[in-house]
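Hey, can you fold this one?
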Amino acid sequence: MSLATTVAVLAGEAAIVGPLAYAAYLARPPWGAVVPFAAWCGLVLLTFLPAARSWTARTHGCREPSASERSGLRRPWRNLLHRAGLPDGQYRLMVTDADGLNACTPVRGIVAVTSHATSLPAPHLEAILAHELGHQRGLQSLSAFVTTHLTVPSRFLRWVLRTLWSPVTPMWKRAVAWQRPIGFLMVFLLAAAATAVTLLAALPAAIAYAATALPRLSKTATDHDADAYAVHLGLGPDLLTAVETHIEKAASEAELPLPLVQRAHHLRRTLA
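Sure. Predicted structure:
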């Protein structure tokens, strides 16, 4: 994650919070303008607390490992910490329910692994854990910080727009089934309200989309850096085997994951 990308995301988020601050200022000057920015900064500072980190990770789909998952993760995780020279307890291990090979780790201090990866052989699982740990090392964690904290206004705005529009289609189907004027009137009023909010939020929504998309532009580079960390720890061959096995499985289901193919090529060049 480059400094320019971080600054661009920060500017985009400020462009969303700014109008809210101005509206709050008109409603209750002068302190009303401070409230939106204070709430935003408060969310950022709150997630630096260890307890809040766990809560933030849960909002991104992470959970505590089950008993069977914890049993399978225990030895690979300890071996990795010993290999990396890290104390036990510096990072918290969590699981996200997904069929993919790697999990998004959006919170500093939290290493996430997919439920699919927990079923891998121990050497492959240790390599995957090394990759996820690599995302938390040094400047790698900046991407997680940007995605988790700075893009809160963008993600909230997108949630509002989805919430407004999602009932329209089901209500239209019910109105058609009822064949009552009141049903069509309710759909019209809801659609009108959603349209009005969308028009008002069109520019902030576009900024929100751009702000949340910018961190994803550096995903390939950050994945390569995390892979390099696993290679540095001597787990490159096991990581390459895990990636190639996942590619073969996906290819047999006619779903070739091109990003993983690119990662595999990059790992081969790194190990050559």
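The CA atoms of residues 60 and 221 lie 22 Å apart. Let me know if you want another pass with a different chain boundary.
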